[in-house]
Design brief:
This is ditrans,polycis-polyprenyl diphosphate synthase [(2E,6E)-farnesyldiphosphate specific]. Keywords: Transferase. Its EC number is 2.5.1.87. The chain is mainly α and 239 residues long. The chain has 2 domains: 4-97 and 138-207, Undecaprenyl pyrophosphate synthetase, CATH 3.40.1180.10; 99-133 and 209-238. The protein has helices at residues 4-10, 15-35, 55-73, 99-115, 126-131, 178-190, 192-202, 210-237; strands spanning 40-46, 90-95, 143-146, 165-168. The strands form 2 sheets. It has a two-stranded parallel ribbon with strand order 1-2. Strands 3-4 form a two-stranded parallel ribbon. The longest helix has 28 residues, at 210-237. The chain is globular, with a radius of gyration of 20 Å. It starts with a helix and ends with a helix. The model is unreliable at 82-89 (pLDDT under 50).
Length: 239
Amino acid sequence: MDGNRRYAKKQNLPIAEGYSKGYDKMVELIYLCRTLDIVEFTIYAFSIGNFKRNKEEVDSLMNLARQKFKDLLEDKHNMFRPAFRKCAISAIASFCHPPRDEITHAIKDIIQGVKDNDILLEDINEDLITNCLYTYKSPNPDILIRTSGEIRLSDFLLWQISNTCIYFIKVLWPDISSWNLLSVIFYYQRYYSSLQKNRDNFLEPIIRNTRVSTYIDKLHNKRDMEIEKIYQSAIQSQK
């Protein structure tokens, strides 16, 4: 979702209004993805590095995100009404999620798992690392779109995009249109065969024993409980 601030400056709007327009664009594209039977849509909304911006801007963005995503979860946009349920979509917003930190945490968790005798050294492989990432329930992306003309990945999904079609577009996020998205999909279709061939070449059969499966479940149950504690603490602090 890159280009919200530049959009606001270009339109002589408050910075917060640029982010609000960016949220509206996200909702619009989720609708389109549902129509196209795209089942998962991941948005990089805010990084840890963005906290270096001035406090007023960060506070404004956090308040906006809190309200907008509350509206989304309460389905105020009617995206999950019965007429749409046959083409469900998982929309994931990534906040403060630096992948290098994610990979580091996965490695530390695996080391601890070996120390605790939950897994063995010979259990460590690419599949185990993948399943220790925060995105373990999601398939690797087919397409990554970077808006606003920036030709860099900004530390986004580094482990997951080794065989992903990457598309850089100069359009600012709030200005992106359905035609832009369709152009990206056509571009992906053009190179689908070669992408799939690369995936098949790197694909290895997954052999996961009961010990590893038990460890993965234990790890994510622990993380879920930690997230629940943080959530409950945040709720209590607002009372």
